[in-house]
Amino acid sequence: MTKIEFLICGRRAFDTVKHFVKTVGAQSISVLVTYADKSVLNDPYTELIEFSNANGIELKHKNDYIYSGNNYRIVIGWQRMIDTDNRTIVLHDSLLPRYRGFAPLVNSLCKGETSLGVTAFFASGEYDMGPIIVQRELSIKYPITILNAMEHITPLYFQIIDYVVEGIKSGDLRSTEQDETKASYSLWRDEEDYRINWSLDAKEIERMINAVGFPYTGATALLNGALVKILSVQEEADLYIENRVPGKIIFISNGHPVVACGHGVLKIVELIAGNGQNLLPIKKLRSRFQ
To answer: In angstroms, rounded to a whole number, what is the distance separating the alpha carbons of residues 225 and 172?
Structure first.
Protein backbone atom coordinates (compact mmCIF):
# COMPACT_ATOMS: atom_id res chain seq x y z
CA MET A 1 0.00 0.00 0.00
CA THR A 2 1.19 3.54 -0.76
CA LYS A 3 2.20 5.49 2.32
CA ILE A 4 -0.08 8.15 3.77
CA GLU A 5 0.72 11.54 5.27
CA PHE A 6 -1.59 12.36 8.17
CA LEU A 7 -2.33 16.00 9.07
CA ILE A 8 -4.21 15.89 12.35
CA CYS A 9 -5.25 17.95 15.35
CA GLY A 10 -7.33 16.94 18.34
CA ARG A 11 -8.50 13.85 20.20
CA ARG A 12 -10.73 12.29 17.53
CA ALA A 13 -7.97 12.66 14.96
CA PHE A 14 -5.49 11.00 17.30
CA ASP A 15 -7.91 8.14 18.00
CA THR A 16 -8.35 7.66 14.25
CA VAL A 17 -4.59 7.45 13.71
CA LYS A 18 -4.34 4.87 16.50
CA HIS A 19 -7.07 2.87 14.76
CA PHE A 20 -5.15 3.10 11.47
CA VAL A 21 -1.94 1.88 13.12
CA LYS A 22 -3.80 -1.01 14.74
CA THR A 23 -5.52 -2.13 11.51
CA VAL A 24 -3.02 -1.16 8.80
CA GLY A 25 0.29 -0.60 10.54
CA ALA A 26 2.62 2.26 11.44
CA GLN A 27 4.81 1.43 8.44
CA SER A 28 2.07 2.82 6.17
CA ILE A 29 2.38 6.32 7.66
CA SER A 30 4.93 8.47 5.86
CA VAL A 31 4.71 11.34 8.33
CA LEU A 32 2.39 12.53 11.07
CA VAL A 33 1.93 16.31 11.15
CA THR A 34 0.23 18.07 14.05
CA TYR A 35 0.10 21.05 16.41
CA ALA A 36 -1.35 21.79 19.83
CA ASP A 37 -4.96 22.95 20.06
CA LYS A 38 -5.12 25.48 22.90
CA SER A 39 -8.91 25.86 22.64
CA VAL A 40 -9.60 22.50 24.34
CA LEU A 41 -8.76 21.07 27.75
CA ASN A 42 -7.82 17.54 26.63
CA ASP A 43 -5.51 18.18 23.68
CA PRO A 44 -3.42 15.03 23.02
CA TYR A 45 -0.31 16.79 21.65
CA THR A 46 2.06 15.31 24.28
CA GLU A 47 0.47 11.87 23.87
CA LEU A 48 0.97 12.12 20.10
CA ILE A 49 4.69 12.67 20.58
CA GLU A 50 4.94 9.61 22.84
CA PHE A 51 2.82 7.52 20.45
CA SER A 52 4.92 8.47 17.44
CA ASN A 53 8.16 7.66 19.22
CA ALA A 54 6.82 4.32 20.42
CA ASN A 55 5.71 3.33 16.91
CA GLY A 56 8.64 4.69 14.92
CA ILE A 57 6.50 7.30 13.11
CA GLU A 58 8.09 10.50 11.93
CA LEU A 59 6.35 13.43 13.63
CA LYS A 60 6.49 17.01 12.40
CA HIS A 61 5.02 20.26 13.63
CA LYS A 62 2.82 22.01 11.06
CA ASN A 63 5.40 24.80 10.70
CA ASP A 64 8.06 22.31 9.58
CA TYR A 65 5.95 20.38 7.08
CA ILE A 66 6.23 20.50 3.29
CA TYR A 67 3.96 18.22 1.25
CA SER A 68 5.91 15.67 -0.76
CA GLY A 69 3.27 15.63 -3.52
CA ASN A 70 3.74 11.87 -3.91
CA ASN A 71 1.50 10.38 -1.21
CA TYR A 72 -2.14 10.47 -0.27
CA ARG A 73 -2.84 12.87 2.58
CA ILE A 74 -5.58 12.38 5.18
CA VAL A 75 -6.56 15.54 7.04
CA ILE A 76 -8.53 15.37 10.31
CA GLY A 77 -9.34 18.18 12.73
CA TRP A 78 -7.02 20.53 10.85
CA GLN A 79 -7.88 24.19 11.36
CA ARG A 80 -5.47 25.67 8.85
CA MET A 81 -5.61 26.29 5.10
CA ILE A 82 -3.61 23.77 3.03
CA ASP A 83 -2.65 23.39 -0.60
CA THR A 84 -4.95 20.91 -2.30
CA ASP A 85 -4.74 18.26 -4.99
CA ASN A 86 -6.60 15.09 -5.94
CA ARG A 87 -4.71 13.05 -3.33
CA THR A 88 -5.74 15.09 -0.29
CA ILE A 89 -8.69 13.65 1.65
CA VAL A 90 -10.41 15.59 4.43
CA LEU A 91 -12.65 14.17 7.17
CA HIS A 92 -15.29 16.66 8.35
CA ASP A 93 -17.72 16.59 11.31
CA SER A 94 -20.94 16.93 9.31
CA LEU A 95 -23.04 15.44 6.55
CA LEU A 96 -21.84 17.69 3.75
CA PRO A 97 -22.91 19.85 2.05
CA ARG A 98 -24.56 20.95 5.32
CA TYR A 99 -22.46 22.68 7.98
CA ARG A 100 -19.50 23.56 5.81
CA GLY A 101 -16.89 25.49 7.73
CA PHE A 102 -16.10 25.84 11.41
CA ALA A 103 -17.23 23.98 14.55
CA PRO A 104 -19.84 21.89 12.69
CA LEU A 105 -20.40 19.46 15.57
CA VAL A 106 -20.91 22.21 18.18
CA ASN A 107 -23.19 24.18 15.89
CA SER A 108 -25.18 21.04 15.00
CA LEU A 109 -25.83 20.37 18.68
CA CYS A 110 -26.79 24.00 19.33
CA LYS A 111 -29.31 23.78 16.49
CA GLY A 112 -30.77 20.55 17.87
CA GLU A 113 -29.97 18.31 14.89
CA THR A 114 -31.15 14.75 15.52
CA SER A 115 -28.57 13.24 13.17
CA LEU A 116 -24.80 13.67 13.24
CA GLY A 117 -22.29 12.46 10.72
CA VAL A 118 -18.81 12.46 9.25
CA THR A 119 -17.88 13.04 5.61
CA ALA A 120 -14.70 12.17 3.72
CA PHE A 121 -14.11 14.30 0.64
CA PHE A 122 -11.36 15.34 -1.73
CA ALA A 123 -10.01 18.77 -0.80
CA SER A 124 -10.66 21.58 -3.24
CA GLY A 125 -9.81 25.26 -3.54
CA GLU A 126 -12.90 26.26 -1.50
CA TYR A 127 -13.32 24.95 2.01
CA ASP A 128 -15.45 21.82 2.40
CA MET A 129 -16.73 21.93 -1.20
CA GLY A 130 -14.82 19.02 -2.74
CA PRO A 131 -16.43 15.83 -4.09
CA ILE A 132 -17.68 13.39 -1.45
CA ILE A 133 -16.06 9.97 -1.11
CA VAL A 134 -18.15 8.50 1.72
CA GLN A 135 -20.41 9.53 4.62
CA ARG A 136 -21.49 7.86 7.84
CA GLU A 137 -24.44 8.95 9.99
CA LEU A 138 -26.02 8.27 13.39
CA SER A 139 -29.06 9.45 15.34
CA ILE A 140 -28.89 11.14 18.74
CA LYS A 141 -31.28 12.18 21.50
CA TYR A 142 -31.19 15.25 23.73
CA PRO A 143 -29.92 16.23 26.20
CA ILE A 144 -26.43 15.23 25.08
CA THR A 145 -23.06 16.73 25.96
CA ILE A 146 -20.39 17.56 23.41
CA LEU A 147 -18.12 14.93 24.99
CA ASN A 148 -20.76 12.22 24.51
CA ALA A 149 -21.38 13.37 20.93
CA MET A 150 -17.65 13.12 20.21
CA GLU A 151 -17.58 9.61 21.66
CA HIS A 152 -20.55 8.62 19.48
CA ILE A 153 -19.05 9.84 16.20
CA THR A 154 -15.51 8.54 16.76
CA PRO A 155 -16.44 5.04 15.49
CA LEU A 156 -17.74 6.71 12.31
CA TYR A 157 -14.22 8.01 11.73
CA PHE A 158 -12.90 4.47 12.03
CA GLN A 159 -15.47 3.19 9.50
CA ILE A 160 -14.57 5.94 7.06
CA ILE A 161 -10.82 5.38 7.40
CA ASP A 162 -11.35 1.67 6.71
CA TYR A 163 -13.35 2.54 3.59
CA VAL A 164 -10.80 5.06 2.35
CA VAL A 165 -7.88 2.69 2.93
CA GLU A 166 -9.61 -0.05 0.92
CA GLY A 167 -10.23 2.43 -1.89
CA ILE A 168 -6.59 3.50 -1.92
CA LYS A 169 -5.43 -0.12 -1.93
CA SER A 170 -7.73 -1.04 -4.82
CA GLY A 171 -7.10 2.16 -6.75
CA ASP A 172 -10.87 2.70 -6.93
CA LEU A 173 -11.61 5.65 -4.68
CA ARG A 174 -14.72 7.13 -6.27
CA SER A 175 -16.42 10.39 -5.39
CA THR A 176 -19.58 12.39 -6.10
CA GLU A 177 -19.94 16.15 -6.48
CA GLN A 178 -21.80 17.95 -3.68
CA ASP A 179 -25.33 19.23 -4.24
CA GLU A 180 -24.97 23.01 -3.96
CA THR A 181 -28.73 23.47 -3.51
CA LYS A 182 -28.44 21.76 -0.10
CA ALA A 183 -25.35 23.63 1.13
CA SER A 184 -25.25 25.43 4.47
CA TYR A 185 -22.43 27.05 6.41
CA SER A 186 -21.17 26.93 9.98
CA LEU A 187 -19.52 30.08 11.37
CA TRP A 188 -16.41 30.16 13.56
CA ARG A 189 -16.93 30.62 17.28
CA ASP A 190 -15.05 32.70 19.85
CA GLU A 191 -15.46 33.71 23.50
CA GLU A 192 -18.49 35.87 22.72
CA ASP A 193 -20.29 32.78 21.46
CA TYR A 194 -19.76 31.12 24.85
CA ARG A 195 -21.92 33.79 26.52
CA ILE A 196 -25.45 32.62 27.31
CA ASN A 197 -28.38 34.52 25.80
CA TRP A 198 -31.03 34.16 28.49
CA SER A 199 -33.77 35.48 26.20
CA LEU A 200 -33.67 32.21 24.26
CA ASP A 201 -35.85 29.17 24.95
CA ALA A 202 -34.68 27.03 27.89
CA LYS A 203 -34.13 24.05 25.57
CA GLU A 204 -31.88 26.12 23.29
CA ILE A 205 -29.84 27.35 26.23
CA GLU A 206 -29.48 23.83 27.62
CA ARG A 207 -28.25 22.57 24.24
CA MET A 208 -25.75 25.43 23.97
CA ILE A 209 -24.37 24.83 27.48
CA ASN A 210 -23.97 21.12 26.77
CA ALA A 211 -22.37 21.82 23.38
CA VAL A 212 -19.56 24.03 24.72
CA GLY A 213 -18.73 22.07 27.88
CA PHE A 214 -15.68 19.85 28.39
CA PRO A 215 -13.37 19.51 26.50
CA TYR A 216 -14.20 23.13 25.67
CA THR A 217 -14.04 25.76 28.39
CA GLY A 218 -17.74 26.09 29.14
CA ALA A 219 -20.63 28.53 28.75
CA THR A 220 -20.28 31.88 30.50
CA ALA A 221 -22.53 34.52 32.03
CA LEU A 222 -22.33 37.49 34.35
CA LEU A 223 -23.78 36.88 37.80
CA ASN A 224 -24.37 40.22 39.50
CA GLY A 225 -21.59 41.63 37.29
CA ALA A 226 -18.99 38.87 37.91
CA LEU A 227 -17.99 36.41 35.15
CA VAL A 228 -19.03 32.82 35.92
CA LYS A 229 -19.17 29.52 34.05
CA ILE A 230 -22.28 27.36 33.90
CA LEU A 231 -21.22 23.77 33.25
CA SER A 232 -24.56 21.97 33.42
CA VAL A 233 -28.25 22.77 33.75
CA GLN A 234 -31.56 20.96 33.92
CA GLU A 235 -34.80 22.12 32.33
CA GLU A 236 -37.63 22.39 34.83
CA ALA A 237 -41.39 22.61 34.28
CA ASP A 238 -42.21 26.10 33.07
CA LEU A 239 -43.91 28.60 35.33
CA TYR A 240 -46.33 31.40 34.56
CA ILE A 241 -44.30 34.49 35.35
CA GLU A 242 -46.26 37.72 35.14
CA ASN A 243 -43.21 39.94 34.62
CA ARG A 244 -40.75 37.53 32.99
CA VAL A 245 -37.21 38.93 32.91
CA PRO A 246 -34.74 36.45 31.35
CA GLY A 247 -31.77 35.79 33.61
CA LYS A 248 -33.43 36.55 36.94
CA ILE A 249 -33.42 33.87 39.62
CA ILE A 250 -37.00 32.86 40.50
CA PHE A 251 -36.17 30.70 43.51
CA ILE A 252 -33.42 28.52 44.93
CA SER A 253 -33.88 24.74 45.07
CA ASN A 254 -31.48 23.05 47.52
CA GLY A 255 -28.87 25.67 46.75
CA HIS A 256 -29.40 25.51 42.97
CA PRO A 257 -30.76 28.68 41.36
CA VAL A 258 -33.74 28.30 39.04
CA VAL A 259 -33.53 30.95 36.32
CA ALA A 260 -36.16 32.45 34.02
CA CYS A 261 -35.41 32.16 30.30
CA GLY A 262 -37.16 33.75 27.34
CA HIS A 263 -39.42 30.73 27.45
CA GLY A 264 -39.13 28.08 30.15
CA VAL A 265 -36.87 27.88 33.22
CA LEU A 266 -33.55 26.20 33.96
CA LYS A 267 -32.06 24.89 37.19
CA ILE A 268 -28.32 25.45 37.33
CA VAL A 269 -26.62 22.22 38.39
CA GLU A 270 -22.94 23.19 38.14
CA LEU A 271 -21.73 26.77 38.58
CA ILE A 272 -18.13 27.91 39.02
CA ALA A 273 -16.21 31.18 39.14
CA GLY A 274 -13.65 32.09 36.52
CA ASN A 275 -10.93 30.62 38.75
CA GLY A 276 -12.76 27.29 39.02
CA GLN A 277 -14.21 27.85 42.50
CA ASN A 278 -17.57 26.17 43.11
CA LEU A 279 -20.27 28.81 43.59
CA LEU A 280 -23.00 26.51 44.84
CA PRO A 281 -25.02 26.63 46.97
CA ILE A 282 -26.36 30.06 45.99
CA LYS A 283 -27.87 31.96 48.91
CA LYS A 284 -28.80 35.34 47.42
CA LEU A 285 -32.21 35.12 45.74
CA ARG A 286 -32.16 38.66 44.38
CA SER A 287 -29.54 37.85 41.75
CA ARG A 288 -29.51 38.00 38.01
CA PHE A 289 -27.55 36.32 35.20
CA GLN A 290 -26.68 38.36 32.14
So the answer is: 60
Q: Rounded to an integer, what distance in angstroms lies between the CA atom of residue 108 and that of residue 280?
A: 30
In order of 257, 267, 270, 290, the CA distances from 285 in angstroms are 8, 13, 17, 15
**pLDDT(261) > 90:** yes
Q: How far apart are CA 45 and CA 272, in angstroms?
A: 27
Taken in order of first residue, the domains within the chain and their CATH numbers are 4-186 (3.40.50.170), 191-273 (3.10.25.10)
pTM to 2 decimals?
Answer: 0.94
Predicted confidence (pLDDT) at residue 1 exceeds the cutoff of 70: no
Phi, psi torsion values for 143, nearest 5 degrees: -75, 150
Structural contact between residues 151 and 145, judged by C-beta atoms closer than 8 angstroms: no
The DSSP code sequence of 136-157 is EEEE--SS--HHHHHHHHHHHH
Integer Cα distance of 108 and 111 in angstroms? 5
Residue 84 has pLDDT above 80, yes or no: no
